[in-house]
Amino acid sequence: MSIESVILKIKRAETPGYARLKTVAKAILTFHLPVPRALDPVYSFIQYLRTLNFETNERIMVACFRFPVLRARCVSIGKRLQMELIPNITGPVKIYLGDDVRLSGRLAISGGRIFADPEFRVGNRSFIGAGCVFSVAKSIAIGDDVLIAGNCTVSDYSAHPVDPEKRIAGVQVDPEDVRPVRIGNKAWLGKGAMILPGVTVGESAVVGAGAVVTKDVPAGHICVGNPGRLLTRTVYESRAELKPAVH
Description:
Blueprint: H1 3-12, H2 16-29, H3 40-73, E1 76-77, E2 88-90, E3 94-97, E4 102-103, E5 108-111, E6 119-122, E7 127-128, E8 133-136, E9 139-142, E10 147-148, E11 153-155, H4 164-169, E12 181-183, E13 188-189, E14 194-195, E15 200-201, E16 206-207, E17 212-213, E18 221-224, E19 229-234, H5 239-242
Parallel strand pairs: 1-3, 2-5, 3-6, 4-7, 5-8, 6-9, 7-10, 8-11, 9-12, 10-13, 11-14, 12-15, 13-16, 14-17, 16-18
Antiparallel strand pairs: 18-19
């Protein structure tokens, strides 16, 4: 009898013996020392020291190793960069980061081999969340004061051609299928948003969480859904302002 089958029998408590084993296992999994609540401040202080030690080690790693590694892969990095982990950078891509840029967690930047020297630019004071993926064959430009939440995807080309024979042969997409992407100043991309090739997100525009943007988003507008659609109100209008008057 395999271990997996025994565990399944215990979970199901198929016999009185297995039922007793399940009771014992539950007691072990839920066992806690009878520590008096008077010691809560002590344990809180211990946890604080653990957190402080972790944060200190992380800052040292960023300053002494991770930042120099990222700098070696970038054409230019502005002042006061805040980062946590080294981005996963692949392919021939030129990276330009502005001042006061913040990179949260791990992100990926991949360069396509269609045009020489594809460029990935991030403006001043912009934030990029963890899990974001950028695929650039020619140009992805992110403006100043942009907020990009976690797990967003931005690409200026499809990774594979539509023609199945070309896909099977491993052929790259045609140059005319590469269309640069622009994210305007003060724009906000919600978590999990996907920006497809050729899209321009206008200044101060908002893209909702999980939206798939296939067309340009005008400045100050809000785009939601899959496929993305524009709301009637803009970022400068509240919901209350759009409600019809009651007579």
